[in-house]
Amino acid sequence: MKSKALSTSLQSLSKFPILGNLEVEINVEENELQLPVESLFKMAARINKKRAFLFVSKVLGKHLRVNPLDPLIISALLALRYHGTSEYEERMVRALLSDQTNQKKTAYEAFLSKKIELQQESIVVGFAETATALGHGVFDSFSNAQYIHTTREEILGDNPLLTFEEEHSHAVDQRCYSSHHFFENEKPIILVDDEMTTGKTTINIIRDIHAKYPRNQYGVLSILDWRSEEHIEAFRQLEQELNISIQTVSLLKGSFRCYGEPLLNEFTIEQGDKINSLPTIDRVDLSNVFTPSSFVPIKGSRASYVHESGRFGLDSKEALRVQHACKMAAEMITRQGTEDEVLCIGTGEFMYIPMKIATYMDGNVYYQSSTRSPIHCHNEESYAIQNKISYLNPEENNTTHFLYNIELNRFNHVILFFERSVEVKKMNTLLSYFHKQGVQRVTIVECSKDKEEESCSQG
């Protein structure tokens, strides 16, 4: 089960056993920042016929908990490499690899004090669900940019501007909602995802954008780039076909081959099926801190999404307002009292705001997010995913979410962030699971109120 660690230099083939007879063979070809590969990801098996495995990121704050500053530092490194600026790179890499929060914070704040000015104002697009915070972090790095992220959710009474497929995903449909003015221009578009394996998703969105809102320049940023020569050639052909330029940037580039059969049946029984004792519940209402958008989901609560998420578009002038709102939110949460060690948890695509709030909290604060992605769990230390809970997302009630690797007796206090208001009674499975894992206190944070509930409270 133990994988062979890869050094920072160029490598020959190295094998990562996963589960059963499933294994991935990796060859690192480019690693200019000399990042230890083992600091970036671990491997796991997916419950997915289309792709049998998953690179489980150790720097995104999705499936595995992280220091909340790490995803922002990774975003900054991608922005620096896209712009071709090396001034802060070495310091940011040292901060990423450090276990000292103060060092991370000092390095990142120094970088933000002199944001990168792009040659031309650009539109940054983060891919849902995993890269919504990563894309937002890239946007934060620029002084003259706009930001929007794609979504798998459907919006009541609105048609998406863009639609495309993420072919390897368990939920393939991706959409983008905003006003037409957001894309009716010739600004370069910078697409941000955590990894590229074939690049088909990127090609799909470029085709859709170009058919509706043509322009000349596209950038594609990813932490990992595993495209084969055949897939790289597909990008070259697309450039020629559409008469465009595509600049690709990654922190680690290489190739892989997968061997063995996909695992389509769960190895272990999921925890949290029975409702046992619940932890103490606190609630924090942030609806006066964040700005309600005009968009509500087709299914789920009547509460609107929040504007600051970037789901419907932001510009650089608004970035400071988002930062200020997250600082205020952190102060409101900490007034309720927090433990020395706290786990903050975002929900699905709603990753950036909870993560940013967590960076302003004192103490040993960790961050991760729930996900729609089903992954095999296996209780062995060298395997990426050792335990999990599945539950219905209380914001929607019809979508299953997963949380991974909540360690037994590690955290006494968990802070759950929701973009929209939720009913606690719909969370009993999740809350019971937390209690079973030794969590004594759960703070539920809501950033937008149900409109009916709000009018009742005002009446």
Automatic annotation (TrEMBL):
Range of residues in the leader sequence: none
Ranges where the Orotate phosphoribosyltransferase-like domain occurs: 40-254
GO molecular function, one term: glycosyltransferase activity
UniProt keyword list: Glycosyltransferase, Transferase
Domain named TRSP: residues: 308-432
Superkingdom of the source species: Bacteria
KW Transferase (keyword) present: yes
UniProt-listed Pfam families: PRTase_2 (PF15609), TRSP (PF12500)
DNA repair recorded as keyword: no
Name of the protein described by the UniProt record: Phosphoribosyltransferase family protein
Species lineage: Bacteria, Bacillati, Bacillota, Bacilli, Bacillales
